[in-house]
Amino acid sequence: MKKFELISFATPDDLARAVASQWLDEIEAANRAGQNHCVALSGGRITHKFFASTVEQSRERKTSFARVHFFWADERCLPPDDPESNYKMANELLFVPLQIPEKQIHRILGEAAPEIAVQTAEKQLLQLAKSSENQPVIDLVLLGMGEDGHVASLFQNAKPISTNDAKCKESFLFVADSPKPPPCRISLTFNAIALAKAVWVLASGSGKETALRDSLAEKGQTPLGKVIASRKNTKIFSDIRAGA
Q1: Which pLDDT score, from 0 to 100, does residue 241 have?
Q2: Torsion of CA 127, 194, 152, 3, to 10 degrees
Q3: Could you identify which of 80, 175, 229, 238 might form a hypothetical disulfide with 185, taking C-beta atoms 3.0 to 4.6 angstroms apart as the criterion?
Q4: What is the pTM of this model?
């Protein structure tokens, strides 16, 4: 039995529009229920299109973001104004256009000492996300997928991946040896992703066909494959021709 839902698109623009529309549906449902919506964002090229489409559609729909709290699936250990910062991209393309108040933005402190960044991220998430047995439960985790099948900053050969499994209760970890620069990052753990109410993967870009196919295999061992195995269902939005 498949533990994922694969939704295919002809172009990255089609993918971005569809995900943005479905996300706004989730936000509006939370608004109607009078509940907060906690989301973890990711970086990546497709995210530019996704943020732009979210802004455009939310203005057309007049969607309120007053109950949305923003977290991150991962962040580079860099200042928030660094061009490579995931926060900087979200701030410029999403928060500023939508006039999101600072109190709703819970960025990872990439400029701080890693242990402080992890502790602060853990504390903020636990305060705002609905918890089960003192474990934060994020409403929606948005992930990209790299050419090697990595998600967030959980890489195939990075040291944290061998110790970070369902037995690990922490929500964030420090990755000191990312194979992609910069080497130092803060990432959600597999455990936090497994506990999330929903996980959506925006799999887009050339050169990723093999990674996606391997991830969707029954016993896929890529980081994305491990995420899929840890959950009842994961949505994969893809413009990749993987033959899956």
Answers
A1: 80
A2: -150
A3: 175
A4: 0.94
